[in-house]
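Folding follows sequence. Below is one example:
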Amino acid sequence: MHAALHLEEVRVAIGKLLNPDSLIACACCCREWHDSFIRLLWHSVVFRKTGARISTLPPLALLERHKHLIQYLTVNGCNVPVYLSLQGCSLLTNLTLQGRLFRQSPSEDWLHYWTLLISNHSSTLQTINVHCISGANVSGGFCSAIASCCRLEALHLEGLLVPQVRGAELWDACRNIKTLTLCGMQFPKWDNTFVGVSRLRRLIVKSPISGVNGLEWIQHCPELRSLHWQGYEQALQFPRKQFVQALVCGAWPHLEELHMDDTAWCDESLGTALEGIRSLVTLRATISSFGPLSMRAIEKHSSTVVTLDLTNCLMLKGPIIQKILSSMTALKYLSVGRIGYMDVVRGSPWASVNLQELTINIDMSSPRLSEHEDLDSSYQSDKSKTTLNDLDSSAFTTHQKLVYSRIASLTKLRVLHLKSFWLTGEGIWSPTLDLTLSAGLDYLSPLKELWSFSFMGNPQKMGMEEIEWMAQNWPRLAKLTGRLSTDPDTYYEMKRLLNSHRIQVFDIPIRI
């Protein structure tokens, strides 16, 4: 046996890569190995029993002997009372209770056992996740069990119904937690007897049931730092107008993260909200109208914004994207839409040198005057009538290499995703960067941290020279996604070469 295997930390590192059967085999080797691998085996346990064929219940004798090692426990559809009455897991910190696999709606008895499981470990639990699609009513005992968890920091509730009479109890039970997730939950009408959640830092609301204004609940979280609101067509829409008014009046002075997935904002409302936030770190507004007003408002946060997700924002034009990249110095994660290559060429050098993940669509087709329509004059680029057809090949190559040099300045990039969009009328993808060495691919050699590189659109015309260059110049590259070549034989030869360098290759099918 190698001397390194006598070290505890080495055995633990190996054990984290093994499946349960391998862990059992290792634990049976000797007493020294048993102590190391048995802890990993019982670190995370799942109780699942939905029928005679689907069961992952450990033998009770072994469970009693090793329950003190359990740190993560998942109860998935288990309806065996002796397991649901478990107690004595002195290290249990994370508990997940799932009712998705019940063939019938779980009765109040199962909610009672869940409550008992929480109460039995109230002194150690730090995270509780409750997933139920049956619409079981929250009981007073459940609220009391949550309130008794003195170390609880995160609570996730999904699919439970909160009667009006239990609203005050549940909200009071949550007043000391830091992260609260409510998914498919009905907001009871706010009652003056309810107390504010003084320690809540992060509130996540997904698919709230319509009928009650959720702003009443948000307003009573004075220390809120992160707000996530994800609604769908049948769900309660985010109260944008009231939220903006409260924000401007000084509510939530510590708010720094705003996640508005699937919530449409107009440019004016979003701009006003960004003006009301004192220090913005994260903004996800994936279907909002991010335009000149929003850009002007977010500029005051240029030194603090770390994450910016503006995917599918229809008003987000190339000049604004160029302004973001040339002014947001703290950005680490950016996802935007289309920017014309001439906006990059005419714009200032990119200042977002801390970027680690970039998703962008650099359109290499002819510049369009419509790109600059309806934009504030301060964000318009030169409305030159020069088009791609007026440029000779050498000028276009020079411009393309300048675009490459802009990307190359982002030396901390780990993930680069070059998007494209489908031209329905023409039946092709929009032109993107030519990923060949002659076109300027070698300009990207400074991207030594690049781990994942993907590109959409029409197949590239790479050769083995480009593939060898990637393997040599991007030492951390582990994932490559896109159509490397139109020739199947060449493609598979490239794939074999990349795999020999431990680089996974994923193809993007051609749209039909």
